[in-house]
Amino acid sequence: QLVDQTEGRLGPQPVVLDHTSGFEGLLFVDDDLLGVIGHSNFSSIRATTCVYKGKWAYEVLISSQGLMQIGWCTLSCRFNQEEGVGDTPDSYAYDGNRVRKWNVTTTNYGKSWAAGDIVSCLIDLDEGTITFCLNGQSLGTAFTSIKTGPGVAYFPAISLSFKESVAFNFGSRPCSTYPVEGYLPLQNPPAADLMKAHRLLGYIRNILSTSIDIQEERLLERDCALWKLHGEPTVLITLAHIFNHFAPLMIHYLRLTTAILRHEKSRKYLLNNELTFDVLRSVVFFYIKTPLRVKEAGLEELIPTTWWPTHFDKEGKDEREPKDESADERLRRRAYERGCQRLKKRIEVVEELQVQILRLLLNNKDKTTGEASRYIFLNKFRKFLQENASNRGHPTALCPPEYMVCFLHRLITAVRSCWEESSRKTGGFSSEDAYVPPQLFYNGKVDYFDLQRLGGLLSHLKKTLKDDLAGKANIIIDPAEIQATSMDDLDEDEESGAAQRPFGAAAMGGALARPSWLSSPTLGRANRFLSTAAVSLMTPRRPLTQPEKVKVRTLAVEQRTEEDIEGSHGNDGLLLGRPLEEPDQVVADKSLLEIVDGIVMMYNLSVHQQLGKMVVVSDDVHEYAVALKDTEEKIARCPARRADILDELQKSQKVFAEKLNHLSRRLAWINATIYSKEKMMDVYWLLCVCIRTIEHADNTGSLFAFAPELYLNVAMNAYSALKNYFSPANSMEELPGYEETLTQLAAILAKHFADPRIVGTDIKDSLMQALASYVCYPQSLRAVERIPEEQRVAMMRNLLAPYEQRPWAQTNWILVRLWRGCGFGYRYTRLPHLLKTKPEDANLPSLQKPCPSLLLQRHMAELLSLDKDMAASFLNSVLNQLNWAFSEFIGMIQEIQQAAERPERNFVDTRQLKVCATCFDLSVSLLRVLEMTVTLVPEIFLDWSRPSAELLLRRLAQLLNQVLNRVTAEKNLFDRVVNLRLPGLESVDHYPILVAVTGILVRILVDGDRVSRASSVLLSDPCFQLHSIQHLLGEAGDSSGSFGPSGPSGSSGSSGSSGFSGSSAAIAARPAVGSLGSSVAPPISTPTSEEDLCPICYAHSISAIFKPCSHKSCKACINQHLMNNKDCFFCKATITGVEDYSKPTS
């Protein structure tokens, strides 16, 4: 090691992590001493070099996005398992997980980081400041006036929690990813080596582009792309060193690289040599870096004229070609578009060269000198995927997401080109119809590492579905392999995600006779295994058939040969074990199937996440454009006498314009490299591949459980990317076969969100959320309506299953979206009292315009009308959840009110506010589902010849009265909390819940045929209060939350405003609802305070106490409750008795 003599810096060169004395806790450090993984509660480590003067920087690649504190510390800092960098006086840190900065105390700072992000840590010891950057964007000065002077020097340092990992770059790489002007890297770049390499590459290029004319004895120039070298290439050793040490430089020598790889021996030598040409380094060849500074890419010359949107619609979205666009604006926009096209053509030249390199690596005809290049590449590619799929890999071995995006697109282009070439020769199907056959998922030819399968653990599936494999696919799992995957498999790290939470475990667990030793809580993973097995044991099995069966074992990547992949006479290769349901299609190059499978895996690993991250540039352009337009309007309105304000506004205008000039050019680059029409077609092709793969796997019946979860994930994510990331530059509606693809995806979501073959709770939740989002948009909802009727009815039947023992909130949300637009006062997109506020994200599914589905409503009505048992269980579960959600909401607003009234600490936890708002929204949505049911199938409540109709109507009346009493009581708890206007409780208001209740009352009192029956039940309910009805009709003494024929009253906005109250339905509701008061006598007495009221109905005094838990309510509520349930409202203890209660005299 060389001791550095540069002023302001002390320590050896090269700079590495101090793994001998500068650490605390248990850490794993990579061989190059730059990557580190935490292996204890909170480990810390510093670098070997420190700085005491000048401006210095280093970079950190975030490999996992968990809890880490990155920054600087002095030699005097002492860390432990609880305190790390930033927790001691002379250490300073940035934490992107919690979005805070740390120096003994902590405050909010910066942005949230994600895996693949690069953090730059800058220290200016002349000014005494520390700054951090995220992906080259400054987060602002974090610390000022840091301690400096004699004896004070700062080391790069990090503290990280268990399993978190990063990789440092102190300057050892050829160039910093995001250099910051004025700051030096801690390590000097290897300038001499770089110069030598540059010169050597020039020499090689001269050699390749020069030939000798022997007859005329002179040198001739030729195209180096046509280079061929015969015999044993003596230059290979030199090339090996170049590839190994200077791979990033080869981006500038793509033509040279192409020329070298055209030579068969050179290509295979480089592919086979582990040290010289692994896939990770080759990925660099397919990366086109997005410039942070427009000057470094020559963008100012390519795009001399910049443009950004200046016209916005009512929702704040950009208008692509506004009608009132001026001639000057139109000229600027067209000049900008021409510049974007010039840039795109330049980039396409580079992309074409990169595709050529991949096509050379995918050559499967060069078998004269051993194994073909494609199979060498395929095995390297699979190892590359394995390293990136496993969190146990070294962080420095992980491929950055931005590299992965470029690699994916080039690989798709190259693979489709090879596929088309092959299909033309053999008559196989086109790449347009490509999919991955289901047998790849279970025949052991392709290693899926520890990726989760739809049916759970692979070892469990092999045991429970071995008869199905034999019967359907003629495959027998090697008994030795089944023996090996016994209970030992259950000891895999839980972090790998291999252990699955079973679906339906509670239902089936009791059916299995377990040995007593399995009941130990320490064997939780074993219990999960048995429960998962129970689900699969329910799958019907086909008896063994007589055709010849093949015994298979899972092959490791390095053990496979070309025959294992492509097959030979009598051997299907990758397609071994074709199930009876799978068509026998000609696939010429089976190796391409595995590469397609790898492409899907790449998208799932990090490409989708990166596509979402890059959208932020477009969002920034929009925000700055709105700010600039607002500033220009203020300048126009600014009075001439206020020159000081005008000066400040003009400064702001200049800053915004400069920022937009920079961002618009950067956006042009991103649109050309990431969001272009061609890239959109790649993602669309990937979506279609996943859809076809899922459809074929689904046809195999129980063997569908072997399919990896990632195919469903990629199908959902690719659709989301096409819909949200590529617009408005490219529209999804322009894609070929767009509507058919939407319908196919709708069928997959509708069928598999409740598929018993899928056991993973995470993937089931993802499917449910995707379906919930799908029904929010008119085009995708129409796609759901286009799927076959049998599938639509099955979907609705699954949605109407009882809510207990399953995640029900998303199910309820789906039903609400199918109804929204049809309900009473339910045609709004946003709550009326929130119309004046700007939504955080207008693209959210919940903020889409109502688009009800009358077709699916009809299916729901038919199902509930014909199946009386299902209707009763469904509605009882909805009423139970409404009772729970509203009770939780009331309990929470009581706590919030108490916290707000404390004089010593007026603070309410934001998480508590969020949960409170969620409970309110759930209550409203459950009321809307009840309104939907009453409207579509009123006989469920009003036809008392049905066995449960009377009980359901009484339960409904009780809950409606409880809600009304709580919400409409004068100056009550609900009013007080609403008037606090707390951030996070914006949706909590009188309007949404009162119109939902009114919608139900209108249906059973106005539109119903049996009005008198419904009226008598409402009136006879002990919770009925006349003032609640008067409040609804605007006849109460204080009408601040009511609405009548003249429209909602109250200027305070407590109930919002809407035009619905003058409608015929509302006017018709007045006499019917108002007549309820004619048969009701005025209350004899009222409780003296709110504390004396029953906490359930809020209508009567507390008169009963439960035993043994001593909770209280009125007698009417507990008697009604005990008809269906023996558990306490509050603590769920079993009620053994109910006694009279009277308030003791004070």
Automatic annotation (TrEMBL):
Q: List residues of the B30.2/SPRY domain.
A: 1-175
Residue numbers spanned by region Disordered: 1038-1058
Question: Pathway membership of this protein?
Answer: Protein modification; protein ubiquitination
**Spans of biased composition, class Low complexity?**
1039-1058
Molecular function (Gene Ontology), one example:
ubiquitin protein ligase activity
**Which GO cellular component term is one of those annotated?**
cytoplasm
Q: InterPro entries from the xrefs?
A: B30.2/SPRY, B30.2/SPRY_sf, ConA-like_dom_sf, RNF123/RKP/RSPRY1, SPRY_dom, SPRY_RNF123, TPR_RNF123/RKP, Znf_RING
SUPFAM superfamilies, A to Z: Concanavalin A-like lectins/glucanases, RING/U-box
Any one of the GO BP annotations: proteolysis involved in protein catabolic process
Supply the Gene3D superfamilies for this chain: 2.60.120.920, Zinc/RING finger domain, C3HC4 (zinc finger)
Q: Which reaction does it catalyse?
A: S-ubiquitinyl-[E2 ubiquitin-conjugating enzyme]-L-cysteine + [acceptor protein]-L-lysine = [E2 ubiquitin-conjugating enzyme]-L-cysteine + N(6)-ubiquitinyl-[acceptor protein]-L-lysine
The main place the protein resides is cytoplasm
Q: RING-type domain: from which residue to which, for each copy?
A: 1094-1132
- Protein EC: 2.3.2.27
> Which keywords belong to this entry?
Cytoplasm, Metal-binding, Methylation, Phosphoprotein, Transferase, Ubl conjugation, Ubl conjugation pathway, Zinc, Zinc-finger
Compartments where located: Cytoplasm
A single Pfam family it belongs to is SPRY
Broad enzyme group: transferase
Q: How does it assemble?
A: Component of the KPC complex composed of RNF123/KPC1 and UBAC1/KPC2. Interacts with UBAC1 and CDKN1B via its N-terminal domain. Interacts with RIGI (via N-terminus) and IFIH1 (via N-terminus).
Q: This protein is called what?
A: E3 ubiquitin-protein ligase RNF123
Lineage per the UniProt record: Eukaryota, Metazoa, Chordata, Craniata, Vertebrata
| Gene name, Swiss-Prot/TrEMBL | RNF123
